[in-house]
Design a protein that fits this description.
globular, alpha/beta, 281 residues, nine-stranded mixed beta sheet, hydrolase
Length: 281
């Protein structure tokens, strides 16, 4: 684990980074960068789900906490989507990763990954979106609704909300909820992200690397999968039966199998066919 400042200048952000190499000492054949969603961290999202197994299969795994999240620096402002993408750009430069990488993004992390692929197609070998969408007009409306609910239900009634989460979801989820409330309360993130510049349809169509989109079949995003598929017909859409938005946490084995087959690592085998592929219903 390390804290890495993205630049030497005053606009640099200290990011908490963890890197996992293949445990047997053999050189990795590819690099995967794992990007977590909003209001959580890389430890909760990836370390206890898919990261160790990806490294064991021969992948150089890079995880980091987004600005304001986990152990990374928490400035008051500068939380537009473009700021998160710039953090990724600068981090890869700092780590001297020059070969094309596989980007794996859960929820908002997938939105960051996709925009990075638009900016730097030559630096991306593939993108996996887990319960995620590119930053389109519909995404902006959805994310604005999410933050309005967070402010109303969590921040404005924080004590009652945290007590309910602790009683019904456990201490771990309550810890994440407490951190989320603090982030929304003490920074401009709830204003900045919904106001982010969105991608045009032409920009979405410009992505030429392989795109894997993984959805829980019961999530709201599964019903919106057709939007991405209509703009990028080559997208491989997979719907995991009986799963909701928390598919990475609740079905990590299935997600791992899809990632291994997508990245194409030695030792990665196609998953048992428990997921339906194709257009959303």
């Amino acid at each position: 684990m390390a804290m890495i400042r993205t630049t030497d200048g005053p606009d640099g952000i200290r990011l908490h980074v963890q890197r996992l190499a293949p445990p047997d000492g053999r050189p990795p054949t590819t690099t995967a960068v794992l990007l977590h969603g909003l209001l959580t961290d890389s430890l909760a999202s990836y370390y206890f789900t898919v990261a160790p197994a990806l490294a064991a299969a021969g992948t150089d795994v890079v995880m980091y906490d987004h600005r304001g999240h986990g152990r990374s620096e928490r400035p008051y402002g500068s939380y537009a989507l473009a700021d998160f993408v710039t953090d990724l750009e600068r981090l890869l430069d700092r780590l001297e990763i020059t070969s094309p990488v596989h980007l794996v993004g859960n929820c908002f992390g997938g939105t960051v990954a996709f925009e990075y692929a638009v900016r730097h197609p030559e630096r991306v070998a593939g993108v996996c979106l887990i319960e995620s969408n590119p930053a389109t007009e519909s995404w902006a409306k959805d994310i604005a609704d999410i933050f309005r609910r967070l402010v109303r239900e969590l921040v404005e009634h924080e004590a009652e909300a945290l007590a309910w989460v602790s009683a019904h979801e456990g201490d771990h989820t309550a810890r994440l909820a407490r951190s989320a409330a603090r982030l929304v309360r003490t920074t401009s993130i709830a204003r900045d992200i919904p106001a982010s510049r969105v991608l045009s349809e032409e920009q979405v169509r410009s992505v030429r690397c392989p795109v894997l989109a993984v959805y829980g079949s019961e999530s709201e995003l599964a019903g919106q999968a057709w939007r991405l598929a209509s703009l990028l017909p080559g997208t491989r859409s997979v719907f995991l039966p009986g799963q909701g938005h928390s598919v990475l946490a609740e079905a990590p084995g299935l997600v791992l199998g899809l990632l291994l087959s997508s990245i194409g690592e030695p030792g990665g085998t196609p998953p048992v066919p428990v997921a339906a592929e194709g257009d959303a219903r």
